[in-house]
Amino acid sequence: MTALLALVCGGSMMTSCDKKGNEQAEALFEFTDSTEDRSQFVVLTDVIPDAILEIRYFGTYNFVGERIDGYKAPIAMLTKEAADSLKLVSNDLKQVGFRLKIYDAYRPQKAVDHFMRWAKDLDATDMKQYFYPDLEKEVLFPQEYICERSGHSRGSTLDLTLFDMNTEKEVDMGGTFDWFGPESHPDFCGDPDTFEYTGKNEKSPQGRSITAEQFANRMILRRAMMAHGFKPFRTEWWHFTLENEPFPNTYFTFDVE
Predict the structure, then answer these.
(1) In which region does residue 97 sit, left (phi positive, over 0), alpha (psi from -120 to 50) or beta (all else)?
(2) Which tens digits make up the pLDDT trace of 64-98?
(3) What is d(CA 108, CA 123) in angstroms, rounded to the nearest whole number?
(4) What does pTM read for this prediction?
(5) Domain spans in the chain, listed from the N-terminal domain onward
(6) Which of 12, 134, 136, 220 is the most exposed place for a label (fewest CB within 10 A)?
(7) What is the Cα–Cα distance from 14 to 180, expressed in whole angstroms?
């Protein structure tokens, strides 16, 4: 436990949208590059062999309820730079009994397009009770849970959690991956800048909460990722982007295979 606390306190949709300001985002959407070139990407398990994969968009347990376009294999791909930095994260966490569990990494643009088509089909609500029970589907696009562009398509963003090697279970983060709501925000029930649990849950429409231990677990992941150059996302505790990503203006289109 001392080691875990040190990792938290010491030392250094949800299709996540690009948050760059409206005018800048529109300019990026118009002028960014797209390419099929995968030469600068690696298969993540070639770099981190013991990473656990649960690639949600290859399967049917996701907010859409079906396999997503562009996912032709249950693997994770990242730019070389992101994978190398994630290896350092993995090395740190293994010392205190954790392994990384990956939900998603590189996401081809055609997958994002699939999300957009699904968001516009207001009758397709099979997975509502599991991922967005508090929201009507028509608000998902206006509230930016679903967007036309995703940082995942630039190749240096991933969604992940922790797996506890002692309990042989996924670490309890107090909420599921891809839950659409304030309960997924890093500042839910605590301050992610100070790593302090506050218990404040006024943003939850149903009065949901997470415990101090669940918040601390989220912060273990956050601290470890930030220590090796990954920046967190403001509305998803599981989502991180390499701060010095090699392709900040390129959206890749090749399939995950």
Answers:
(1) left
(2) 999 999 999 999 999 999 999 999 999 999 999 99
(3) 25
(4) 0.88
(5) 23-30+37-178+213-252
(6) 12
(7) 6
Q: Which two tokens stand for residue 167?
A: 């309990």
Q: Kindly report the CATH class assigned to 23-30+37-178+213-252.
A: alpha beta
Sign of CA dihedral 157, 160, 49, 68: negative
Question: What are 78's two structure tokens?
Answer: 């990242």
H/E stretch holding 219: helix 212-226
- 79-103 CB burial, b ≥16 within 10 A, e <16: bebbbbbbbebbebbeebebebbbb
Please tell me the least confidently modeled range out of 81-95, 138-152, 190-204: 138-152
**DSSP single-letter state for residue 127:** T
For residues 35-70, one letter each, b for 16 or more C-beta atoms within 10 angstroms of the residue's C-beta and e for the rest, the string is eeebeebbebbebbeebebbbbbbeeebbbeebbbb
Burial of 178 (0-12, 13-18, 19+ CB in 10 A): buried
Which residues touch 138 (CB under 8 Å, ≥6 apart)? 122
The tally of CA atoms less than 13 A away on the side-chain side of residue 30 is 6
Q: Identify any residues that bridge with 162 across adjacent strands, giving them in sequence order.
A: 100
Mean pLDDT of 9-33: 44
